[in-house]
Amino acid sequence: MGSSIDREASFAMLDAFAFHGGNFLDSAKVYADWLPIERSSSEKTLGRWMKARSNRDKIIIGTKGAHPDLASMHIPRMSDADITGDINASLAHLQTDYIDLYWLHRDDPRRPAGEIIEVLNESIKAGKLRAIGCSNWRAGRIAEAQAYALAHGLQGFAADQMLWNLAKVDPAGLPDKTLVAMDDALMLYHERTGLAAIPYSSQANGLFSKVAAGNMTQLPATYRTMETSTRIDQVKKLSEASGLKITQIVLGYLISQPFTTIPIVGCRNMAQLIDSLSAGDVVLTPEQRSTLLQAS
Ligand SMILES: NC(=O)c1ccc[n+]([C@@H]2O[C@H](COP(=O)([O-])OP(=O)(O)OC[C@H]3O[C@@H](n4cnc5c(N)ncnc54)[C@H](OP(=O)(O)O)[C@@H]3O)[C@@H](O)[C@H]2O)c1
Predict the structure, then answer these.
(1) Were 263 and a residue from 5, 151, 234, 254 both cysteine, which residue would form a disulfide, CB within 3.0 to 4.6 Å?
(2) How confident is the model at residue 56 (pLDDT cuts 50, 70, 90)?
(3) CATH class of 7-205+254-279
(4) Alpha-carbon separation of residue 199 from 113, 260, 261 (angstroms)
(5) Nearest-atom index, ligand 1, CA of 276
(6) Rg (CA), the chain
């Protein structure tokens, strides 16, 4: 929003999203600083839209900070000054005095998780943040942070944001090695604790729809696995048998997990937005979910 999608188209999509009952938006201070446009254009666009529509109290804003500098992705930015400075900057961009759900965009495994929880709780106490979450954290680190919060009477993570969709990731094909995809350890953690999952790239960048429409002949490196090819066939079969659209199955797979799962959808145009919203009420049975993961 506000980057490759200009302001007018962004406002039209945000209006449509709100009209259909949507109220939860995902942004980040670093979006979309990889483009030669104004810094933090996503947050600023959301801030301008909420101001123009006077609807801040109706929107749940999730935004992220503590992302490494784009030129030095191997150097974490997780000090008190980094985190608190980013929170203050996001508040200004969004033209608000509180953030509903503040995400740490990355982790620094060399820093004690408790130290990070303490920093975030200072901003909670100051009224700047309502809830906190982690993105691209591994299960062991989440457990460490939650244990510290519990032991010290502090607020822990309310949700976890990871790369997760119906395709099977090839870790070697991931373009950014600081991203964390759903894996067995994370899945077990969510099942055991009930921590909410709010996955990104939830549609594998439209892979399933694009293959079904004949618009993609070679799988992208991130998802070039045998399992992905098989699941493409399983999605097609379930679509034919159930009458559900491809998008509804791909997002329905996530929505129907045994713990709260809220897929973030990245829509580039109004048609994709409306298509993705049509998955909102889809419920897949546990049998349908396991069939999707089975070999042909
Ligand atoms: N925490 C993190 O580190 C992190 C990382 C990445 C993303 N995110 C968040 O997650 C959001 C979504 O991520 P994403 O863009 O990678 O995920 P995505 O939703 O899997 O992919 C978006 C792409 O999928 C295609 N698409 C979307 N809806 C479609 C539909 N209904 N039918 C067919 N194709 C469709 C479009 O491709 P085309 O443009 O080719 O048409 C679109 O650009 C981001 O905007 C961001 O807020 C977070």
Answers:
(1) 254
(2) very high
(3) alpha beta
(4) 22, 11, 7
(5) 31
(6) 19
- Which residue's CA is the closest to the ligand 1 atom numbered 34? 206
Q: Which of 9, 8, 11, 21 is nearest to 59 (CA)?
A: 21
Residue with CA closest to ligand 1 atom 31: 272
Contacts of 170 (CB under 8 A, 6+ apart): 221, 222, 223, 224, 225
Residue type, 270: M
Instruction: Give the C-alpha separation, 141 to 218, whole Å.
Output: 35
Task: Taking each helix axis as running N to C, give the angle between helix 286-293 and helix 226-242, from 0 to 180 degrees, rounded to the nearest 10.
Answer: 140
Looking at the whole model, is its pTM more than 0.85? yes
Report the share of the chain in percent with pLDDT over 90: 97
Residue ranges of the domains in the chain?
A: 7-205+254-279
Q: Across the beta sheet with 196-197, what order do the strands follow?
A: 24-26, 60-65, 99-104, 129-135, 157-161, 196-197
